[in-house]
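Ligand-bound model needed. calcium ion.
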Amino acid sequence: MKQRIIIFSVLMVTLTIQAQRMDNVTTHSPYIKAVDEYVPAPGQFVNDVPEYEEGDDASAMVRKCTESLANNERHLVALGGWGGYITFHFDHSIANVKGERDIYIMGNAYQENRNLVLGGMNEAGIVMVSKDVNGNGLPDDPWYEISGSCDVDSVGKVIYDYEVTYRKNPMGDIPWTDNHGNTGTIDRVNAWHPQEYYPLWLPDGLTFRGTRLPDNMLDLSTRVDQSYSAYYYVLVGFRYGYADNMPNFTDPADATSYNYEQCGIDIGWAVDEKRQPVSLDFVDFVRVYTGLNQKCPQPNWWGETSTEIQGASDIHLEASLESIRQAIAGISEQRSAENTDVPCYNLQGQLVSQPKRGSLYIRNGKKFFKQ
Ligand SMILES: [Ca+2]
Ligand SMILES: [Ca+2]
Ligand SMILES: [Ca+2]
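Prediction:
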């Protein structure tokens, strides 16, 4: 009896690890199904997009984020200063198609119109991915960061294991400290953002951990016609691997010209805590957090650099669904092969009552290896 329980436990673990998300819906959607977590850092759009209303708690704010982003609604959600994040999922697991970008994330970055630099309004968010390993439908499993172009283009300038803590300061500039001995503030910007900047439903002393990307703000004021404005700042884009980094569309006038090349994420770029590549066949959750900790100098039009997102989609819906079907079929085959109530035969076709470890057998017409 004890042995049977052990076999059953091993089988359950195997199934859980291999199972993919495939919701029971009539038609699968490539777009975000729901938001799981919304923990922004303080910022000029926080408590505004989405709007905080008195009495809202974390789950109410998550629900508002879902209304903004799910089903391709394309309303903005602001993540605030460095570290602020959002987590979301789809109605199926997203497959990692080899050599292709898998997840497209929309922000509100644009190409500055003088074409002096790549991008120009890059408020890059770092992307993380996770599998629902324990199968409970919650994002409480190991996370892996997507290694974007800064890891190869800005070696030595990316700060890993970075940490920032923000403190409340009602209706004032929000102070922060980091784990490198620096201090600073998220400044109140202007009359267009009159609300409190610290997320009102979250406790004082919010601490975020992750990777800090190199500052990307350039002052190009001397390179433009100063009769229009004395100041011209740009936030230079990174080549690939981030959210809210480059324009959503390759042609601004064509809302179907998706910029998969610069806004698409390849799950194959995922790395572990030691920045070593990990091999993921599927992911169930995606997280985006603000990756820059900088603010625009005076005149402070832009305030802090804060990632916004507008939505996300599975770039290859059909490929994901087909991969899931194959994975589920593989699990069914394994289950039937390991079902000890069904007769088992050796390769000579003789009935075997006690299969020996390390040998091949046939059950339900399928070969299986007794482990
Ligand atoms: Ca891929
Ligand atoms: Ca989970
Ligand atoms: Ca933005």
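The first strand starts at residue 34 and ends at 39.
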